[in-house]
Amino acid sequence: MDAQQLTRQIYWSPSGGLNEILHLTTYFWLLLAMVIFVFGVWKHIKLWRMGKAEVAFDRPLDRFLLLFRNVIAQAKVLRARRQRDPKPKSVYAAWMHGLIFYGFLTLLFATTIVALKDYHILDVYYGWFYAFIKVACQVAGVGLAIGLLMGIFRRSDKNLGFKHSAGYTLLYSFLFLLVIQGFLLQGFRLAFQENAPDMHWAFVGNAISFIFPKEMSADNANAVYTSIWYFHMVTTMAFVAFIPYTRAMHIVTASLNLYTQRLTPTVLLAKMDFENADAEYFGAREIKDFTWKDLLSFDSCTECRRCTDICPANAVGKPLDPREVILKLKNSMTVEALFAKEEDDKYYLFENGTITHNEIWSCTNCGGCVNECPVGIDQLRTIMQLRRYQTLSLGEVPTSAGKAIENIKQYSNPWGLPQADRFKWAEGLDLPIITGDSPEVEYLYYVGCAGSYDLGNQKVARAVVNILKYCGVNYAVMGKAEKCNGEPVKRLGDEYSFSEIANSNVEQLNKLKFKKIVTHCPHCFNTLKNDYQEYGGKYEVYHHSQLLTELYKSQKLKLPVEVNKSVTFHDPCFLGRHNGEYDAPRQILEAVAGLRLSEMESSRETSSCCGMGGGNMWYESEGGGKIVENRLKHVAATGVQTLVTGCSFCMINFKSAFQNLEETKNLEVMDIAEAIALAMPSEAKNAASMPVN
């Protein structure tokens, strides 16, 4: 057969062609559908526009790349999904959505090709390309139908707690009807079109063609086919028209939300304007206090519960459910609330009971929810906006957390210990101390409060300076002049006090001569690297695992001693998810001879939080169990003898809890620097005790 003959008549019917009037009414229904569609989308846009301003259309190339990755490539959807322990990871939702999305996309592409030919814009609907389109549509149609049935089954699972199962079930059923209609039309055509050139390419339609009686009269065949075709056309237009009024709206909102997602680190919270004399409160008191981008995000939620499944607080029964927070805010996006001209406390989110105190204070700022969300919702910043209002405007701060804030403001450390004791960890060591008059050094080692005052972390600080001295690194410490960088204050929602602390520290740091900062605490690392930028502190900051790896690769760090240990590495949230560093800690651990590294099932970007982030180091959130014990169970499952981490808070937490579980009561907990120190030659063990040149 000549390849050019591979095509079909667009408006085919058993009588030779569809009635011209029926054909032309397609344009009327299309116009009507588009008017209804645009009006519905505009109603959503009007609500979003009531949010505060935010820049989200800059850097178009970066945004298109993210859009391609997360929409076309479905990067976040098509991966194994973490479920609640002890259930294994699941690929059910990934397969379901993949079949629906790519099936729908393929059929949409084919429909576009047909439309281009019909409108005399471009005709490529023939030959081998036609054959390719035909085969692709057969596979896509079957895949879409299977995916829709999987979706109907999943939404009927009451254990998943979906709020709008009926809406999604109706949507999936409607799309399933469209798929069946398409195959019926194709089968009917192949049954009554003699020697159809695409019979073997349209293999699904060809199989369906056998259900239609060939002895049907021409008039009856024409009437049946025309009825099915017209019903298919009208229901297709109805689907387009009602997208903005149904759960199908996420096709629009998710794509737009992913394009406009924030390009800064998730954990970076925008600086607040405290110079506004007209401000009556700070933080998110009501729904209109969020930005338009936030409102778009809330509107994008498909309640898939990925955020809830990975939430460490929710996993142990605490009152936080990230999905519920977003859905409650989505339900608060009413015309009355967003367009209210006068203040009315019935729209205040805490005062009217929409959001509760305990759910917001259960958040550990781990960012797992943001990392998992397939439509780009930023649950973390949303929760922190609400927490800022609680702290700054309502004064509802857990008692011990409030004490930590006051200690930092008064004593420059959250424990309230004397500033004179800040450098006691270095007693017996000969360390270079940097001042404004000192010559420039390569690295400023920022020890942090935990390294200065906590006994366990003091050992880490001593290990770090030993390594730096042994490797000949040009570094210095601030000694007693070092102060808390204010990270706990910021995470507890007191942005006003944090701004004062940050301004003071930046002024102090900018007087010192150094090229880079290194710290062993990811919380200090993140604050100095990201949060201080808005206060004029633009520093090149390294976590100690990154520097140790660099020193090893440059052969300055020698590790000749074999260390016979089986270890697993716990990814700190503020190093991994929030700053993207997963490889450096593993590379330096794998460089140690005899050290056997085993990964926990929940590791790297899906790692579970230890529970100390988001200021939780300084208060005990109410309800549920202990997050750290849940993480220790993951450690126990690996069967290792040693847990290695790279975070001051994580180490304090694990060391205080490992004996509470029978399976980890003999566990050894250490920092990366301590593990590396074991592999160093004996003469390097006390390098920092030697006089500084």
UniProtKB/TrEMBL annotation:
InterPro entries, alphabetized: 4Fe4S_Fe-S-bd, 4Fe4S_Fe_S_CS, Cys_rich_dom, HdrC_iron-sulfur_subunit, Helical_ferredxn, NarG-like_domain, NarG-like_sf
Organism phylogeny: Bacteria, Pseudomonadati, Bdellovibrionota, Oligoflexia, Silvanigrellales
Protein name: 4Fe-4S ferredoxin-type domain-containing protein
Subcellular location: Cell membrane
Pfam families assigned to the protein according to its UniProt record, in alphabetical order: CCG, Fer4_9, Nitrate_red_gam
An MF annotation (GO) of this entry: oxidoreductase activity
Keyword Oxidoreductase: yes
Topology class, membrane: Multi-pass membrane protein
GO cellular component: plasma membrane
Domain 4Fe-4S ferredoxin-type: from-to ranges: 292-321, 353-383
Originating species: Fluviispira sanaruensis
Residue spans crossing the bilayer: 21-42, 91-116, 128-153, 165-185, 223-245
Entry keywords, A to Z: 4Fe-4S, Cell membrane, Iron, Iron-sulfur, Membrane, Metal-binding, Oxidoreductase, Transmembrane, Transmembrane helix
Keyword Cell membrane annotated: yes
